Amino acid sequence: MTPVLEIRNISKSFGAIKALTDVNLSLEKGEVHALCGENGAGKSTLMNIIAGVFQPNEGEILIEGKRVKISSPAIAQSIGIGLVHQEIALCPDATVAENMFMAATNRRRSPLMNYGKLEREAQVVMNRLAPIDVRQKVGDLPISSQQLVEIAKALTLDCRVLIFDEPTAALTEAEAQILFGIINDLKANGISIVYISHRMAEIFSLCDRVTVFRDGRYVATEKVAALSPDDVVRLMVGREITQLYPDKQPEDNRPGKAILSVRDLGDGTRFNDVSFDVREGEILGIGGLIGSGRTEIAEGICGLRRTTQGNVQLLGKVLHLSSYADAVGEGVVYLSEDRKGCGVFLDLSIAQNIAALDLESLTGRFGLLNSKVEAERAQTLARRLGVRMGGIDMPVSSLSGGNQQKVAIAKQLAVDPKVIIMDEPTRGIDVGAKSEIHRLLRELAHTGIGIVVITSELPELLGLCDRAIVIREGMIAGEVAGDAMTEEAIMRLASGVGVRQHQRRGASSHAL
Ligand SMILES: Nc1ncnc2c1ncn2[C@@H]1O[C@H](COP(=O)(O)OP(=O)(O)OP(=O)(O)O)[C@@H](O)[C@H]1O
Ligand SMILES: [Mg+2]
C-alpha cells in the first residue's frame, strides 16, 4: 500500500546547527505512528517541515506517492496536514472561537464569514473535548484549557494527516483520556496520526508503530507490539538506563530540621488551612489533580499571590513577601508550570535567562553586570542540566521544548536557593534527562536545600519523593510516606473517594 505520507532523506540546518540529517518516516493510512527521541532529537523540526513552517535543505516529501512542496502552513492545510504545536501558539487576546476559525477560514477562504455560525460550529468541536465556552478570551484560560483549544483548532480542519506534538504535557489525566478516544475515532475514520510524547505508557497504549530519532538522525521504525518500553528507551538514548530514580532518603533517618514551614496558609478563595513542613534532606512531593489548587498554594508561598491567612516561615523566621522578587531575595524560588508565560524569556540568550534572577547578586558584587561571570555560571549549570544547544549566547527560542524547560530550571538554581518549589519540573523532558534532573534534585536535597516537587505524574511522585501531601479542592487531603505511598492511596486522596470530611481534617493536622 502506498503510504499516505513519506519523508525521504530530509536534512535541515539552522545556521551551524544540524537539526536533521537524512531522516525518513513513512505513515500508513489509519495508523497512529509514534515519533520518539531525546530532547533536541529533531522531532518538532520535522513536524514543522511537514506542516510548512520550515523548509528542508534537502530531501523530499511524498503524499500518496506524489512529490509535494509544502512551502507554507496554508499549503499544508490545503493538502490535509494539520499540526497541534508543542508550544501553544494561540492569540491570547482573541476568543477561543476566533482562534479556532483562524485555521478554518484560512482553508475555506470564505469571503463572507458568518460569525454566529462559526461560533456555533466551534462550540460543537470544542464540546467533544471539554465544556469550554468558545466566547472566552484564550488568555484568560489556564494552560490545560489552552492546550485543548490548540487541539480543537486542529480538529476543525479536514485532515488526512494529523500531527500531535506532545499534546498531553499540559492535560489532566481525564482530559488525556478524552483525547485518546478522539485519536482512536480519527484512526477508525482512516486518518493517519503522528504522535509525539515522552510518556512511554501513552505510546504503548495508543500507537501502532514507532520511529526513533537520535541526534537528528533516523534510528529505526518498529511495530510497538514488538518492543518493550526499555527497548524504545535504548533506541532513543543509545544506552541502557538502569536506575530511573535516585535512592530515597533512608527511612530510619531522623527527620531533619524544618527548612520551610507553611502554617494555616490561605488566600480566601483557592486554598485554605494549608500547613506543612519541608525538612532538610528530603524531597517533598505535592500531588493532586490539575486545578486542585497546588499551583495557587505555591504562588501563595512565593509572594506571587496574596494570602489572607496564615504564614510562611523560613528556618523559623516568618517571611513577609509582597512580590516574587522578595521571595528570591530570601532564597525561596519557584519554577512555574507555565514555561512560556513566566518561565523563560524566549528572545533573550540562554546565558541571560539563567542569570535573570541572579542579576541582583551579580551586579551587587561587581557594580555592573559582569558578563564573563554570567556566562561561566550559565555554562556550568547548562552543562549540568544537559541543555543541548548551539552556544550559550543563542536565544532560548532556538532550543527544543525540553531544552527550554532545562533552562527554566537552571534559572532558578542560579541564585543558590534555600528552598526550591518546582511545578511540573520535568514536563516535556525526555527519560534520560529526566533521571539526570531527579539525581540533581536529590543532590541538592543532600546539601540542605528544601525541595518541593509538584507533579501530576504519579510515577514521578512515587519514584522521586520521600513524602507527599495531596491537595484536593484547595486543602490538604492527606499525607503519604514510605510504603504507604502507592498510586491507589494518592488517587484516593486526590479524588476524595472514600474520604469523609472529618477524616480529611484529621489527615491535614497529621501532615504537620
Ligand atoms: N529556530 C531554530 N534556530 C536554531 N536552532 C533550532 C531552531 N529550532 C530548532 N533548533 C535546534 O534543532 C534541534 C532539534 O530541535 P527540535 O525542536 O526538533 O527537537 P525535539 O526532538 O522536538 O525536542 P523536544 O523533545 O525537546 O521537544 C535542537 O538542537 C534545536 O536547538
Ligand atoms: Mg519538540
CATH topology of the largest domain: Rossmann fold
- Please give the CATH architecture of the largest domain: 3-Layer(aba) Sandwich
Bound molecules: adenosine-5'-triphosphate, magnesium ion
Measured on Cα atoms, how large is the radius of gyration? Answer: 24 Å
The total strand number stands at: 20
Strand order of the largest sheet: 6-7-8-3-9-10
Beta percentage is 15-25%
Q: In CATH, what is the class of the largest domain?
A: Alpha Beta
What's the topology here?
Blueprint: E1 5-14, E2 17-27, E3 32-36, H1 43-50, E4 58-63, E5 66-68, H2 73-78, E6 81-84, H3 96-108, H4 115-129, H5 143-155, E7 161-165, H6 173-188, E8 192-196, H7 200-206, E9 209-214, E10 217-223, H8 229-237, E11 258-266, E12 274-279, E13 283-288, H9 294-301, E14 309-314, E15 317-318, H10 324-330, E16 332-335, H11 339-343, H12 350-355, H13 359-366, H14 371-384, H15 401-413, E17 419-423, H16 431-446, E18 450-454, H17 458-464, E19 467-472, E20 475-481, H18 487-495, H19 501-510
Parallel strand pairs: 3-8, 3-9, 6-7, 7-8, 13-18, 13-19, 16-17, 17-18
Antiparallel strand pairs: 1-2, 1-4, 4-5, 9-10, 11-12, 11-14, 14-15, 19-20
Helix pairs in contact: 3-4, 3-5, 4-5
The structure holds adenosine-5'-triphosphate and magnesium ion.
Adenosine-5'-triphosphate binds next to strand 2, helix 1 and helix 15.
